[in-house]
Amino acid sequence: MIRTPLCDAIGIEKPVFQGGMAWIADASLASAVSNAGGLGIISAMNADAEWLRNQIRECRKRTDKPFGVNIMLQSPFVDEVAQVVVDEHVDVVVTGAGTPNKYMKTWVPAGIKVVPVVASVALARLVERAGATAVVAEGGESGGHVGDLTTMTLVPQVVDAVNIPVIAAGGIADGRGVAAAFMLGAVGVQVGTRFLVADECTVSEEYKERILKAGDISTIVTGRRDDHAVRCLKTPFSNKYARLEREGVSAEELGKLGAGSLRKAAVDGNYEEGSFMAGQIAGMVKKRESAAAIVDDLLDGAEKVLSEAGKWVK
Q1: Is Flavoprotein there in the keyword field (predicted)?
Q2: Pairing of strands 144-145, 230-233
C-alpha cells in the first residue's frame, strides 16, 4: 500500500485528488472518491452560494470522509462561496484561475487546508508564504484551462522551490503516471479525465462516450492568443473556435461563442456546440468503472511499477 506525507497533511488514506471539474465534479463523484480513500472535490465553478451549500451538505450525507471544494477565483460569486466553505467547515479548498491570498487570510485561521493549483514556480512560492498546506502543480497536458509548462518540467521545479507537499496533475491516467509523478518529487496526484467515466460521475452520456472513443491526438488547445488556453476534445465547436482564432476574430466574438459551451457538453451532451474538456490522456481511458476501482488501479499500478524499478539499477 502506498502512503505519502500528503495523506497525513490532508487526512486521507490514499494520495489521490479528484479534479474539480466544472459542471462535472458534484457531490455524487466527490463522495465516491472520498469513500474510496482519496480526496473527492466539488467544483464551485460559477455557481452561487446556495448551490454550493446544498452540494456540500449532500456530500456529507454520502460520506464521513474528508472532501474538498474547488473555487474558481474568477467566478462572479467568489466572495460568497469563499464564505460558504468557512460556514460549512469544509476540510480542503483547492483554488484555480488566480491567486487566493486574499481569501486565505480567512480560510487558514478557520482551519481550512488550502491547496492552490499552480502553473509556475513563482505562484507556488507565493501561496506557500500565505499558508498553503500543499500545491497542485498542473502541467499543460491536463484538460480545461492550461499553462505553458508540461507536468514533466513543472513538477520537479516546484518541488525544488517549496517546502510543502506537491501534487502532480496533467497527463496522469494509470499507475505508470502516478509512479512517474513520485519520481519527479510529488507526493500525490490529481486526476480529472479518467474520473469522467466513473460510474458515479453524472456528466452526460455523450461526454463519457466521447472520452472512451478518444485517441492520442484527439485534443486541441484553443485560446492561447488571448492567454485563456483551454484543452478539449476536437469537436465541431472546438474546431470552429480554432478556425475563427486563426482568422483573427475578436476576443469579444469568441467569448460569445464560448459562453455556456462547457455546460452544453457536460449537462446537455450537445456534441455540435459543446466544449468537451479533457486531458491528453483521454486516449488511455478505455472503460467505465467505479471511482473506487479507479483509485485502486492508480495506486496498485504505481506500486507494481515502483516495485519493479530496481531491475534497472545495477
Answers
A1: yes
A2: antiparallel
3-state class (DSSP) for residue 133? coil
Residue the block writes with cell 513538477:
155
Least confident among 174-183, 239-248, 293-302? 239-248
Q: Which residue is it, cell 469513500?
A: 35
First to last CA, the chain: 26
Predicted pLDDT of residue 177: 96
In the structure grid, which three cell numbers stand for residue 183, read together? 519520481
pLDDT tier for residue 75 given thresholds of 50, 70 and 90 = confident
The Cα 96–Cα 93 span in angstroms is: 10
Boundaries of every domain in the chain: 11-202+287-307, 219-277
Query: Which residues lie below 8 Å from residue 298, measured CB to CB, with a gap of 6+?
Result: 16, 172, 174, 175, 178, 189, 191, 194
C-alpha–C-alpha distance, residues 39 and 35, integer Å: 9
Q: Which helix (H) or strand (E) segment is 256 a member of?
A: helix 251-258
Class of domain 11-202+287-307: alpha beta
Residue type, 227: D
